[in-house]
Structures are given as C-alpha cells and as structure tokens.
Design goal:
PGM1_C; TATA-Binding Protein; 353 residues; ATP binding; metal ion binding; 10-stranded antiparallel beta sheet; ATP-grasp_IQCH; 25% strand; globular; IQCH; single chain
C-alpha cells in the first residue's frame, strides 16, 4: 500500500510483474481538487457550483470566479483551493459581498477584476501563518480552483472505498469528520444513518469509474451535509486520516463492514463504533515516554481489552517528544460509549501537569 504512487513505484511494480496498489501518476488527476469536481460533474454527484479546471494564472482565476459569481447573484462566500492542498490547509475563504455589489452596479470588467483581486488578497486562510504572497505563489506553482462556500453545513461526512486487485469494489467505512474550520482533526465511525446509504452509493459510483479505468487504490469522497442534502467536496485518491483508525478496528476485531448498511460487525456479530483523533495535544506529553502512556491507560482502565474488544488504542506516539501530541482511537459497542470513552481520555490527558 502506497500513500501516493510515483513513476518509481510504477517501474518497480512493472519489473516485479505485480499490481501497484496505488493510482498511477497519470491517474492521480482524479484526486486533485479540479479532477474531483470534473468527476462529480461526469457522474452527476451533487456539488457546489464552481470551476471545473485548475488555473495557475491569477487573472485567469479571477475571470473564472467572476463567471461563477454572475451565475449566483446571492452567493456570499467562496472557497479557493490549491489543487494539491492537504487536509484543508490549502483552502482560503473569500468574502464575495464587495464583488456582488460591484456587479449589481454594472461596473466595468477592469473594475470588477480589481475588486476581485482585492478580495482575494483579503481572504481568510484556513492554515495559520498563510499570507497572500505565499498563497498566490502556490497558485502559480500548482494551480487552484474556486467553488461556492456551502453555508449552514450541519456535518462533514465521508466514505472510504477500495478498488481491489480484481477490480471489485469494497466499501470500507463511512465517517463523520471532526473539523477545526476546514482542517481535519479526527472522525467518528460510522456516518449518520440518515444519509449513510447515500454516501455508500456515491462512493460506489466513483469506485466503478476507477475500476473501469484500471485504477487500483484506496480513496475517500468527502461531503458537506446541509439539511440532509449532500454536496460532494473532493476525492482523496490515497489512504487518508480515516484509514488508520478503521484498520486498527479491523486488525483488533477481525470483522467487516456490511456493504449495504455501513455497520461494522465482529465475527461474533457485535456492532462496533469508534471516535478517533490525530491531535490530542498537551505540553506535558513532551515530557512523557510511550511506556508512560501505556501505564496511565492501564491504571485508568482506558486500555484495549481483547476480551470485551473495547477500549482505547494510541498512535503517533513518536510525536510526543517533539510536538506534545498523540492520536487515539476509542472503540466501543455504541456511538455513545465510544464518544464518552474518548472524552474521558482527552479530559484526563489534558489535565496532566
């Protein structure tokens, strides 16, 4: 399994005459922001209005944005996304109020371009420390797309799928993503039942396209939900932050996900749920060793119990010394129990002194 296959992995796979469990470089366009939106359009998967190809010239991007805004006179915000942005850190939110007013006043094309450029320079960057100078340089380097901001989103679910070596499709999981603004922080498994089967349907649609085009890989499709209506946001054509908690569950319990309902069952037919995060942070963690965490979890009875097949497992222990953070996955027999157990662990770890 490869995070993202390059020419080198592709050549090794050819030399060994084995399949590469990753999209080939030529196919990775489908996992870019523009490629995702183009595929949603092709497959009739609902998504917000916006551009469907990347722009690396600021003036070209401005003209594309103006075309979208003129189709949507009530739009208040938009999102500019770097084509290869990661975990929401390549996103920036732009206020459209000034440009909408200028359009309503029938200002000239030159004035509209100038106002739009000013709005871009004043964007709210989702990654701390970003500025227009470095963001615009990244646009020139990798390109960007624009889409309307989906307002009043109540949740950010996703579906994870794998196209197998024989080109069959397996739905691994659905999740509710835990976000800080647009930055990924963690997830809860599975997604809400009110739209879970719809997530599975859309995930299969994308998987069928990949299989028909000879693409073998893990991927996820991310959405925003507004009043139980799903809007597709992007495709991650790779393993993601939701992959490792699910694989931890599978390796610990040896079960599988029902392909119709999205519920995970152990071999004993017990349902399992979890809440996971990569970002449990506290300064005290910098002074601790992995064995200290193990001892704390055992003493507080947070640890994984192989008999009950419930408890909390850690990852990213190597990040403690430098960054003062770890990741945890809280596994239980109900969503409530998984969340309660997760909250107890976070409260304890962040109270250490």
């Amino acid at each position: 399994m490869i995070l993202r296959g390059t020419h080198y992995e592709n050549e090794i796979a050819k030399a060994l005459d084995i399949p590469m469990y990753s999209a080939k470089p030529k196919d990775q366009v489908h996992g870019s922001k523009a490629g995702s939106r183009a595929l949603f359009q092709l497959l009739n998967i609902p998504c917000a209005d916006g551009t469907f190809s990347g722009c690396s010239q600021i003036e070209d991007l401005i003209q594309e944005i103006l075309s979208v805004i003129k189709r949507n006179p009530l739009a208040e915000k938009g999102v500019v996304k770097l084509l290869d942005g990661f975990s929401g850190k390549g996103n920036a939110i732009v206020d459209l109020s000034n440009i909408q007013n200028a359009i309503a006043l029938n200002e000239s094309s030159a004035v509209l371009s100038e106002i739009m450029l000013h709005s871009l320079k004043e964007m709210e960057f989702c990654c701390q420390g970003r500025s227009w100078a470095d963001f615009s340089a990244e646009i020139s380097k990798m390109g960007a797309i624009f889409e309307l901001y989906v307002a009043n989103g109540t949740s950010s679910p996703s579906v994870q799928v794998v196209v197998n070596e024989d080109f069959t499709i397996s739905v691994l999981s659905t999740h509710e993503q835990i976000l800080d603004g647009q930055i990924y922080e963690g997830c809860a498994f599975p997604a809400d039942k009110s739209y879970r089967t719809e997530l599975i349907k859309y995930g299969r649609q994308v998987g069928e396209f990949f299989a028909a085009n000879g693409i073998i890989d893990h991927f996820s499709v991310e959405f925003v939900c507004v009043k139980e209506k799903l809007y597709a946001i992007e495709i991650n054509l790779r393993i993601t932050g939701t992959t490792h908690p699910f694989m931890a569950l599978k390796l610990l319990t040896d079960g599988k996900t029902d392909q119709d309902t999205g519920i995970y069952y152990t071999n004993a037919k017990t349902e399992k749920y979890y809440v996971a995060s990569d970002n449990i942070s506290h300064p005290t963690l910098k002074n601790m060793l992995p064995m200290d965490i193990k001892d704390i979890f055992a003493a507080q009875k947070f640890h994984w119990c192989s008999i009950r097949q419930t408890g909390v497992v850690c990852h990213l222990l190597g990040c403690m010394a430098e960054h003062g953070k770890i990741g945890i996955t809280s596994i239980a027999n109900s969503p409530h129990e998984a969340q309660e157990q997760f909250d107890q662990v976070v409260a304890y770890l962040t109270s250490l002194s």
